[in-house]
Amino acid sequence: METLRIGCAAGFSGDRTDAAGPVVEALVAAGGPAALIFETLAERTLALAQLARRRDPSAGYEPLLDALLAPVLAPCLRHGIRIVGNFGAANPRGAALRIRALAHELGLAAPRIALIHGDDVSGPEHRDALARLLGASIAGREIVSANAYLGAEPIAQALRAGAQIVVAGRVADPSLAVGPALAHFGWAGDDWDRIARATMAGHLLECGAQVTGGYYADPGVKDVPGLARLGYPIAEIEADGTCVIGKPAGSGGIVDEHTVKEQLLYEVHDPRAYLTPDVVADIGAAEVQAIAADRVRLGGVRGHPRTGTLKVNVCFESGWLAEGEISYAGPRAEARARLAAQVLRERLAGLGALRADLIGVASIFGDDGGQWLAAVPPRDDVRDVRLRVALRHADRASAERLAREVTALYTCGPAGGGGVRTALRPTLGTVSCLLPREQVRAGFEMLD
Amino acid sequence: MSKPTTTPIVTVPLWRAAHGRTGDKGNRSNISVIAWHPSLYAAIAEQITEARVAQQFAHRRPTRVARHELPNLHALNFVIDDVLDGGVNDALNLDSHGKALSFLLLELELELPASLAPLLRGPEP
Question: For domain A315-432, is the CATH number 3.10.310.10?
């Protein structure tokens, strides 16, 4: 069986849109069967897409779809490189229609596009089950979205039926790669070891450049060449499921044992039981080995039978987040910023917890309760401090008060404060539960 | 009784011996600790314990710290529960994902035989 190459051209919604070109060039140069995946859905992206679709029924899919696909649609179709993405978000049909129109605009023959359905469980047929599973955590909440994480099977079915492009909404990220592998190699649905290996290949790919030197550099400790022109990853998957991770020749970045290990453990809890809809993957005995420059083999992955449930994420409207910032510089900058924080605490008393950060002194590592900041002794040699405050409130008008009080520091606060910025945004809450697998009817359909 | 031979010990921040990345799911953080060299793994596994990590994050009140050992990868994976002030939906932190937390863990101190010092990364303090 020929090696299958899978390239990844996006690791989240908001990723670089010029990533796909060099990946597709490398896939074409290598020849042989290949797929290109796009992962553009974080936990809350789908809820935001659902809100966009409410405002405009034709929207609700990845807003950068055109920018992501336009540069590579022609070469992918010409060279038989299948495209699989979860860029359908809350509206896979809308995305599929847009891709068909894009192909037409580019002068291409209409591609065979499949859409995956079944992940949306926000309808009445699942309402009782979700209410039972989630109980009080969503009682009285305005539900924005409820989506099950689907597995690789419907993707594989669509590819076997001849789809050149597969548009999904919520599927587990690694399943974007497992689908093409299942379709290509024809593994049995219970071939747990092979499916687990392809799952971990997909896991290495799913965050795009995070395995090729992105999110890794630390000057003097972890140096990465060409960070501004990172090559995105390509996995070469063998018939036994093992893979070699690489990147396009001449691109920036680095693939070595360390970049691969960091991504292998990213968002993993128990390494002996990494749960996906397809399998329980076990990397307890995994081995990572550099076999050439920018080429690393992953071996030793084992698989166990998948669980009987699918994870469901439910998003609901949860209120408002208000933030405000103001800067102090020069002598006693920190003392003036601390005084401004005190003023805000007094003015906003009664609105609930207010977080204050002294950016440049102590902000990120601290806790919302302020215990960390309280333990940082005031210094008189800090010459540049930005005070940042934040609070959440169910009620918009109450949250807005923070913006007004920060702005008022211009005339009422300590001396020399400048650069006020304020922001107010609606927030989404997420809860998750496990739904019995048989209650989710996943499948695909070809766009007519 | 003869005196045991003592090898000189050096104390270094963990980031000189290991690297790591933070991931988040809900209110749970996972942080990998990956040795820069296989010979550094034993000291890391011996000294970077669940208790020390819990202490390092005490101000964030984690309810549980679990450590998973991956000797083949010369790596540890720490899973820290309820450490994100509610996580991305609820926290007031600028970094509500806790993306930066690996660097807090990597500030822990590590003692090593001086003979292993050539395997360390980064500038000496």
Answer: no
